[in-house]
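User:
Care to share a sequence and structure tokens?

Assistant:
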Amino acid sequence: MHGGPHEQGSQWFDNEAGPLVRPYAMTGGRTTAGPQAARFDLIALVSLDSAAPTAHDDTALGPEHRSIIELCRAETQTVAELAADTDLPVGVVRVLLGDLLELACVKVSRPVPPAQLPDEKILREVIDGLRAL
């Protein structure tokens, strides 16, 4: 059969990269992060949950899910870092993170919105007060 997915000259083969997998194939055609509709900001912090499978566990997770788990095993990562380190589009990483969140493999913490941070003037007054002691 000519033009199969792994044959050179096929639309699914790149001479330099090898076989190509389209992003929708990795997410099963999904574009949102699960039924919870979790929002993953680019700077949201993703850390590994204690329920996450180890590299040797026999689970139905795909290689992309496992890559994210292994990256988070080393240290807490932002969504942007995970996308860069896995070489996947951010939209795909968000869908995969939704899967991992539903399976309790990861925890996501969102950064504090700037409106909730203390005012700089108040912090300077506290510092000045401490110096005066």
Notes: The beta strands are 13-14, 18-19, 45-48, 77-78, 106-109.
